[in-house]
Amino acid sequence: MPSATHNSPRARPLLRLLLQVLLPAFLLLAAALLVLTYRSTTSMVNDSIRHQLEEANDRLQILLDSYLSGLDALLSATAEQPELAQNLSSGDRTAARARLQDTLGHRHGEHLDLLMLTQKGKPWANMNSPLYMVEHRLNQLITTPPLFQKWTSIELDASLNPLSILLQRYPLLSPDSGRVIGSLIGGVVLNDNLSLLHQLGRGANNLSIQLIMHGQAVGPMFFNNNDITPDIVTQVLSGRRDYGKIRGHYFSVQPLRINGEPSQLKVLLLTDNTIAQQLQQTYGHHTLLALMLVLLAALILSIYTLKQITIPLDGLTRFATRVSHGKKAVFQPDRIQEFNFLGASLEQMVSVLQQKEQRLAHLFDAASSATIIVGNDDCIQALNLTAIQLFKQEQDQLIGTPITRHFSPEQLAPLLQAINQARKGRRIDDIEARLGSLPQRPRYQLWTLAPVFTNQVVTAVQLQGQDISRLKQAEESLQLNRLVLANMLEAVMIFDRHQRLVYANPAYHHLTGYTLDEMLGQPLGKALPPASDEQESPWQHVDTHGHWQGEINCQIRPGVTTRMRFSIRSLSNDHGETSHYVAVFSER
């Protein structure tokens, strides 16, 4: 009669021994690998970020040199015109102003905030931007740049409305004698120069840029991420360090070279939290690698265990054969349960790997910049959530559609040319293309293109875009404000919180006969003197109610008095404190 019995209980199962001894050893090895990969990843990321900041600073220096070189070429070409020197010799200011206006209309000319002619060390004709109050500081502008054809960084009048300026001076030679009879001065104001800021911000992925002069921030900041607050810049400047990390942001402060030499103008490069996300992503990759090593070791252990399990399986086969022949058989099935436990453990490890893959996919979808993958047939293969929001369509409506269908036609040619260049293995930066077809609400993006390789062959192109619509709108608003103030028929005066005149538009001079240079820093009673019998003082009413409107008898010229329609309104800052007063008036 056949029977099945267990082997001697003194024989310990080999798999149980392996699990009790080798599994803790593998867990310790995995923990050690995780710690080592984290430390090595942190060091690698710090070195990588420092290298990226150095490369960004070098690229920014090249962009600044290119920006100033364009202005150099334009100013030198203007200064070398014999007609301009002839206008200066003959005293023809009208013709000279026309030539200066023509210079401002050329390429790079729109970047010039200051453009003027001098004669015998005194201002002769200027086309300076009316947005900046430099009339009362013309002498400082003329005497500051001591050398010809050399850029100089200066700060005008730090006591009142300081302006940080890059200035250049060119000599004007007499066509008859060849002697210097005057000079052409051109420059840019850094306080709110969005054109220069946009030029320097080209290709600055995940970096925000702030210009610095004499340890103080100059002008607005070029933001690539909204989680950077102004107090972070203040802390960086107060720390007086050239490189470091503050509140999760890496920073670098380096001087900019002007004329090939270090200058007082510096640049602050500040990373956003994308770098921290890259750190987590890299750490995730290394963690995945460490887990794969542990999985490999577990697979080797599984193979060895499977080999050990085949022994009872062979015994089972022999047992069945012997039973079928009516012979006595013995079988020990203990290790089958341990095999099932090992299989469940492997299944759990595979589940962990799938979770890691899902996290990597989530990082792609959660990226703050729009990312589009375009195949070699110019059709969309994949896109993240930010890109879907720009398209304003469902994802299934976009996948497989031609990329040419979604961009404005006037910008399609350079975009397609950049895609073809990326397919040759090149990275293409700063391609401006407008996504969508809504002219009433245009949105502008700046795209970076990079090839996607599969087995060392380019199979797709990745487009990564940053929204620059706010920067475009700010430039248009600034230009519109300049035109409005310069062409208003009503006189506009702006006073500081101490009720001193800081700005007046051209209509102020036409109505009163007084110039801004004469009245700058004067109170309302001096900037627009009341008649001797005028007793009204609107300031107390403005401070109480925020505005005043009425008519005042004013002395617009010595001995000339007229009735003026007058309106004054106070302006408040973010803290509710009065920062400026705006006065608008016209003749009755």
Describe this structure in words.
With 588 residues, the chain is of the alpha+beta class. The protein folds into 4 domains: 125 residues, Beta-Lactamase (2-Layer Sandwich); 87 residues; 102 residues, PAS domain (Beta-Lactamase); 110 residues, PAS domain (Beta-Lactamase), CATH 3.30.450. The chain is 44% helix and 27% strand. It is built from 16 helices and 20 strands. The strands form 4 sheets. The chain has a 5-stranded antiparallel β-sheet. It has a 5-stranded antiparallel β-sheet with strand order 7-6-10-9-8, with helices on both faces. A 5-stranded antiparallel β-sheet has the order 12-11-15-14-13. Strand 19 and strand 20 form a beta hairpin. Helix 1 packs antiparallel against helix 7 and helix 7 runs antiparallel to helix 8. The longest helix is centred in the first third of the chain and has 66 residues. It is elongated and about 140 Å long. The N and C termini lie far apart (130 Å).
Rough outline: elongated
Largest sheet: 5 strands, antiparallel
Total of DSSP H or I helical runs spanning 4+ residues: 16
Which structural class do the helices and strands define? alpha+beta
* CATH second-level architecture of the largest domain: 2-Layer Sandwich
- The pLDDT mean sits at 77
Name the poorly predicted regions.
1-12, 331-335, 338-344
Question: Strands, helices and their partners?
Answer:
Layout: H1 14-79, H2 82-90, H3 93-105, E1 114-119, E2 122-126, H4 138-143, E3 152-156, E4 163-173, E5 180-189, H5 194-200, E6 207-213, E7 216-222, H6 230-239, E8 243-246, E9 249-258, E10 261-271, H7 274-324, H8 335-365, E11 370-375, E12 380-383, H9 385-391, H10 395-398, H11 412-422, E13 428-433, E14 445-454, E15 457-467, H12 469-487, E16 491-496, E17 501-504, H13 506-512, H14 516-519, H15 524-527, H16 539-545, E18 547-557, E19 560-572, E20 578-587
Helix pairs in contact: 1-7, 7-8
